[in-house]
Amino acid sequence: MNKESDAHVPEAQASEVYELMEVDEDTDSEEEEPLTGAEKKEENDQQPEVEQKTLPVAASDPQPEEVVENVSVEASDHQPMSEDEQEILSLASSDHQPMSEDEQEALPVAASAQATSKSLFKLAMDTSINQETIATEWVEMYKESRSTALLRLMQFLVEASGSQYVIPADTAAPFKYMDILLAATHHFDCARKLYPLVAKEGSCIATKLCSFTQCLVKAIDTQGEQPMSSNVFKGFSSFILVFSDSKVRAFRHTSTLMGLQWMTALLAMEEAEKFKKLTHIWRRMLYKLFAPRRLDSVDAIRCLCCSEFLLWLMEYPAKTFDLVDSHMYCLFEALHDTSPQVRECCLVGVSRLCTTEPRVQRACLQLVKKYKQSVLLIAVADKEWLLCELAIRLLMSCLRDSPGLLSDEEIATIEGLMFDQNRGVAQAAAEVFVHQYLHRKEDEAKRIGRVVTFFKRFPEHEHAAYLVDALIERSNVLLAWAPMVEMLLKGEVEGEKEQQQHEDTIIIELLTHAVKQAITGEIPPGRYTKDLNKRAPMAWAKQTATQILAPVMAKLLRKQKENIVNLKNLLELPQYFELEAEECVEHLPQLIKRLQNIFYHQRDLSVIRTAAETLEKINMPATWQGIKEILSTAVTSYRMELRDWYATARTQATNKSRDNRLIERLQVVSVLFRHFDLTKCQLLPTALQSLDQCLSEADGRLPRGTIHLYLEICSHGLMWEQRIIMKDAATAEDIQERCEGLKATLTGVIRMAFKVIKSMPNRSFPYALTTICDLFVLFGYHLQQHTSAAVRSLMYQPTIEDFELLEAHLMMHLFEAEEPKELLQEHAFDELHKKRQALAGYCKLVAYNVVPVMRFRFVLQFYDKFYDAFGDLMRSAMEKALDVNATNYGMTLMHTCLLVFSRVMNGEEPLEDLLKLAKRLAETLSGDLLNSRKGVLALHRAGIYFAAQRQENSLVGSPPQSLLYLSVLEKFVPQLLSQDKIVILKLLSEQIPAELPSCRREEWKPLECYRTALELALKFSCRRAEYEAMEQY
């Protein structure tokens, strides 16, 4: 290794090293707490005056004359040391007695052994060697030669920090720690900013460092004599303190880790008397190491300090409480830290301290009261959900011991978090609610009433499913279904009818969501949780729900028949019944009669759809006769209404009530056709004829309000016909003629849907577009994989004109109608739902490779602008397209950017918008770089060729007209693999020469920035050597 300039490093060289390394200026220390009189006397007794010497230079590396000059200049210009530095250096120089003659004789032998064997750091990192053995051997070495052993220990810290410096073997005590620090700084590999603790295997190295430190302290304690242990602990701690105050992050981080572990290991000493004699050393490290480093500019260092401080209090409260109680406020000040990791560490630690030794517990509770607002601020407003959850749980644990800790307003604020999007936060808030209102032994009806009252206090929150999800695992109040049913069936009280109806609505909604979650284990849509997996169903829930609800379901439906919301929620409950149960089978006929009544009299579409879903769920041999009667009645009623409509249409021009009755009957048929096979009723041919008549301009045409319903019936009919044919094809039946007829019907329906779009583009949105997209997918390329030629013939091949019409219709309604912010307003919810429904239909075509992915660029050009409204839908389709063909997807992104780039060049859009879009698109390639490799390469290659194009009449020295496009490619550089960056860099040099003209350099800036991004990425990659070789070539 290089050993030049071992003694002193010139200030100019040191400053150069600081510039190359990651340097932090904020390393000011706090004032040290004065030592007690006894500690001062003990310290003075162990500090005999010694002669101060400079660090010797290795004999094998003589210094050149110019270096000697630099050293003298540096010495004359050196800034005076602070009082803290003087005190540390004074302590360092006095830590070691002058060597005896035996030690001086043993020094050369030990030095040669150091040169020929592994360093202490490498031995400690070697998993094949027992660290306790290494520590024992070091103690034996110390007994033979103190200086040699301490040199190896100091070298351990230097090497662990990542410096290549080797302390000369003939360095004698007293050691000049500051000179060692400067020399070690100078010998850093400045081309790389990584050091062991932040490298890829950094966590493993840190673990081994901590383990070895503990083994070493234990060996010194058990095998060394008292003067030896005192000298070693004092000397090496002084060395650590000097390094921990360095401006170089690597030294500061590594020495802080070792110093804190050193302090922890001292606390682990079994004999209290030994630790008592070393208390002054421990206190010095507390004030000189912990106190300043807890305010360090590096997040990892601050986190180390907080976590180790908490460990001292939790593991060794008897020894440490009196030493650190005045510093416990640091944990609460850290709640304002900018690092989420530091705040998390403090919240977790303080929560644990509240359950430890009584003295610590009382001190923590007092500090929680003092810093209550800080904890509340994290609980309510922190951006990190985990920290919000931890803060609420901390307040909850303190509430048990101090009920008056929070005011009513503060408790209400926390309880409102049960509606939070994050499940952990909501459940933590639910614990507070349960503690405040549900922990008493009361009648279940009263407990349910408390939940209802709470729900009424938050009218802005309409998501009862979130409240149920928060409480269902924290209290059984929402599993008390029998009391809920009793409350719903009780008679109305005069003068309280309106209030009781409101409460019934809340109870029914809570009951429905509680039954659903208990039986299915599904978490409400939109609620975030760590694993996103549904929870295990409650084993008893399905049987209990059936026993309690099945006998009274018909009564509840009859009582709530006028309330649409209640009726819809109640109709969902039978979907979770145990249909084979005796209670259910006995009462199913009554339920089917109520459903038949709903289909015939109900007008609300959401209620009809829920009723149809329930009818499908309870479809079994015991109920088929009743279901068949409902289906037959619905079709017959529609046909009778249609016949009456035609009869009256000849005599009357317009009759809204007549039109509405036809639409209502048709609506029921359409909903039922979605869940049941009605192909034998021949609805598909008649629906197609009726649809054609709706679009005609002749007198007596069917009302326009039936168009979307006839399209739905046609779509459902085609789906059922295809399913039947696929089933018959498996039994080798002759289906050729049926397939030809179905293909003709399919073509007719699609042509009719396009006709709807052309004739009424506004009124047909989005149902005509979604119908077409669904049929394109249903009769798409997957049919080509079928073994039957007749089935393969059913595949529908859309034309370019079809795609262009769909895209124009989509653009007109999605991206040209309103501004993105307007779509996110509450009043625009229904409109946003329609637009998302239409876009989801088109995204299906991309995901299933029905439409060429290149056409998706017309939608993707709005990806960033409409990200909040449609970003999730586009991202899902993009991920599917990437899996289908990465190269095509990469070219699609390139052409997407080109669409916007053309507008930028024309001055229609700012460049910043294009760069934001490019950055957003690049994120879709970052999930799996290997999977997206071909696409990223294709994007960069095509982009370079485009940017390098020149016009025939371009001036010499002028950049290509589209050179600015390289600024877009720069956003995709992080997605390139290291080996591909070299390929792209070579291609760039071939297409656009590296030598830039001296004039007009500003116009060439995109090329410089793009090339610099590639080069910087290569300099810090595993292909660095290959890149340097390419540069030389």
TrEMBL record:
Highest taxon listed in the record's lineage: Eukaryota
GO biological process, one term: sister chromatid cohesion
InterPro entries associated with the record: ARM-type_fold, Cohesin_Scc3/SA, HEAT_SCC3-SA, SCD, STAG
Positions of the UniProt region annotated as Disordered: 1-87
Transmembrane residue ranges: none
Chain intervals with Acidic residues compositional bias: 19-34
Gene Ontology molecular function, alphabetical: chromatin binding
GO cellular component terms, A-Z: chromatin; cohesin complex; nucleus
Domain SCD: 290-378
Pfam families per record: HEAT_SCC3-SA, SCD, STAG
Family: Belongs to the SCC3 family.
PANTHER family hit by this protein: LD34181P-RELATED, STROMAL ANTIGEN
Protein name: Cohesin subunit SA-1
Lineage: Eukaryota, Metazoa, Ecdysozoa, Arthropoda, Hexapoda
